TrEMBL record, chain A:
Species this chain originates from: Streptomyces himalayensis subsp. aureolus
Highest taxon above the source species: Bacteria
Name of the protein: Transmembrane protein
TM ranges: 30-53, 65-84
Keywords carried by this UniProt record: Membrane, Transmembrane, Transmembrane helix
Automatic annotation (TrEMBL), chain B:
Pfam families from the UniProt entry: ABC_tran
UniProt GO molecular function: ATP binding; ATP hydrolysis activity; branched-chain amino acid transmembrane transporter activity
CDD domains, A to Z: ABC_TM1139_LivF_branched
Gene Ontology process terms (BP): L-amino acid transport
Family statement: Belongs to the ABC transporter superfamily.
Record's keyword annotation contains Nucleotide-binding: yes
Coiled coil: none
Protein's UniProt name: ABC transporter ATP-binding protein
Alphabetic keyword roster: Amino-acid transport, ATP-binding, Nucleotide-binding, Transport
Native source organism of the sequence: Streptomyces himalayensis subsp. himalayensis
Domain annotation ABC transporter: ranges: 5-234
InterPro entries cross-referenced by the UniProt entry: AAA+_ATPase, ABC_transporter-like_ATP-bd, ABC_transporter-like_CS, BCAA_Transport_ATP-bd_LivF, P-loop_NTPase
């Protein structure tokens, strides 16, 4: 890493290039809520489609119900993916931090025990 | 040179309890700023806000003139902000060499990282194969600093460097910190024991109950006021 550019100048330049999301937006929470809403919507669409299909003998209306049902399935898939993406990320970050902390604590206990014996 | 790190009206809370009540502080490149104050004043929270680890409830965090409030610690770290936390943040079960090896994620080679670390802290070269947890407190702090330097920081945030160390070791460590700052790094040091850091600080601030009560050059007048700020003014 050989550069003649002073570190402070490089820092300012790199910060200027950094894509900073609007901190006020809280996008992760928004996507998570959207995912949950889509899953609920999917359920409503599918039940509506089922009821619509059974309330008529008109094939055209039943095709509408099929379309509605497929939209429900699509919304469910997209909603589920969004929900998993934005809920699992937080959980996995927490899990990783927990693992790291536990390993550190274990190592400290082992070293203390070894010092006690030695 | 304008401030590389600037906290402007920062307020922060822990579990709904406000611990910082509008902190204003700035650190320029090559400057050492000491943030002093009694236990529980909010010094560590200030550092954590500066590193992006703790969210600010209000106020602005500026780096290099750009508003980076709310930016994740990973992005700030990538840009050049390095936090060395209280308790050193090393891996005690790994050897000194492996602790340094883990810093290769920054894109620097193992040799380059070791060269910088061992040149600055020759004792670490002698302890290269030793488990970090078995080093003395001062050596562990040196390792923490060496790991920090491996990230090529532009802003270095140090939390309680002197914790649990002998005065001579602390003086040596702060000499190294001053040397790091002379290379153009902006250094913000949080310290409970004022005497340890005032010798190298260009600027100092005293935080009491989440408010900056006094800041300026750490001259004799500043030092005289310190005890009153730590203990409270006589009534």
């Amino acid at each position: 890493m050989t550069t003649t550019e002073p570190r402070a100048d490089r820092f300012v330049r790199e910060l200027a290039e950094l894509k900073i999301p609007d901190p006020a937006a809280g996008r992760a929470a928004l996507w998570l809520r959207l995912g949950g809403t889509l899953m609920v919507l999917a359920l409503v669409l599918c039940v509506s489609a089922y009821l619509l299909a059974h309330s008529t003998t008109d094939p055209l209306e039943q095709r509408d119900a099929i379309t509605l049902g497929l939209c429900g399935v699509g919304a469910g898939v997209v909603g589920g993916a969004l929900f998993l993406r934005y809920s699992l990320t937080g959980f996995l970050r927490f899990w990783l931090a927990r693992q790291s902390y536990d390993l550190d604590a274990l190592a400290e206990r082992l070293i203390d025990a070894q010092k006690g014996r030695g | 040179m304008s401030a590389l790190l600037q906290l402007s009206g920062i307020r922060a809370a822990h579990e709904g309890i406000t611990v910082l009540h509008g902190v204003d502080l700035s650190v320029a490149a090559g400057q050492v700023v000491a943030l002093l104050g009694p236990n529980g004043a909010g010094k560590t929270t200030t550092l954590r806000v500066a590193a992006g680890v703790h969210p600010a409830a209000s106020g602005r965090l500026l780096m290099g003139g750009r508003d980076v409030t709310g930016v994740g610690p990973q992005d700030l770290a990538r840009a050049g902000v390095c936090l060395i936390p209280e308790g050193r943040g090393i891996f005690p079960n790994l050897s000194v060499r492996d602790n340094l090896l883990m810093m290769t994620f920054t894109g620097r080679s193992r040799e380059e990282i070791e060269d910088v670390a061992f040149a600055r802290f020759p004792i670490l070269a002698q302890r290269a194969s030793q488990a970090a947890g078995t080093l003395s407190g001062g050596e562990q702090q040196m390792l923490a600093l060496a790991r920090g330097l491996a990230t090529d920081p532009a802003v270095l945030l140090l939390d309680e460097l002197s914790m649990g160390l002998a005065p001579l070791v602390v003086a040596n460590l702060y000499e190294q910190v001053a040397e790091i700052a002379r290379q153009g790094v902006a250094v913000l040091v949080v310290e409970q024991f004022a005497a340890a850091v005032l010798g190298i600080a260009d600027h100092a601030a005293v935080l009491v109950r989440g408010r900056i009560e006094r800041q300026g050059r750490p001259d004799s007048g500043f030092r005289t006021d310190l005890s009153a700020l730590y203990l409270g003014s006589p009534t």
